[in-house]
Amino acid sequence: MAILQLAVISKISILGIAPNLILIIAVALMLRNRPYDAFLIILIGGTILDIGSSLKFGIFIIIYVIILILIHLLINRISLIPNYFFSLLVLIGAFLFFNTIISLVYSGSLHWEILSDSIINSLWGILALLLVQKYIKVEEKLI
Asked: Which residues pair with 17 in a beta bridge?
């Protein structure tokens, strides 16, 4: 998936914004209570992105893992099955966090594109969540 993102998806853009496929799929899996699958996607995809990035090695993995931990804590704290509005808010928050950190690390400043990037990637995330819901069952919580 990371190779697909680097090679193909980065060339597809809406309003100049390419979807962050790895984070989109990982957050969608977290919202379906599939944390092990989400962390596996993050570790493999983040490693490949780190190898192909000009940023310091490990920055993508660290940011992705922090995002997934925060989402996991949020979902467990609220103890509800996420609806689409809640999912959209989680996705926007995840992308705002990701884009803010990357922007600060890469350029040292914030840009207005962070907001539009977060919204467009979140809409891609809702589409991915629909696909994940259709093909992947919710993992039951072990008590």
From this structure: 14
Please state the length of the chain.
143
Closest CA to 103 of 114, 91, 94, 92: 114
Task: Express each pLDDT in 75-128 by its tens digit.
Answer: 888 766 668 888 899 999 999 999 999 888 888 777 778 888 899 889 889 988
Per the listing, tokens 């992705």 go with: 64
Domain boundaries, the chain: 22-135
What is the CB-side half-sphere exposure of residue 32 using CA atoms within 13 A? 24
* Contact (CB, 8 A) for 116 and 19: no
pTM here?
0.81
- 30 closest CA partner among 2, 84, 68: 68
Residue whose pair of structure tokens reads 């995809």 in the numeric block: 45
- Residue with token string 């979807």: 19
Cα–Cα distances (Å) from 54 to 9, 20, 57, 95, 97, in that order, read: 18, 17, 8, 20, 20
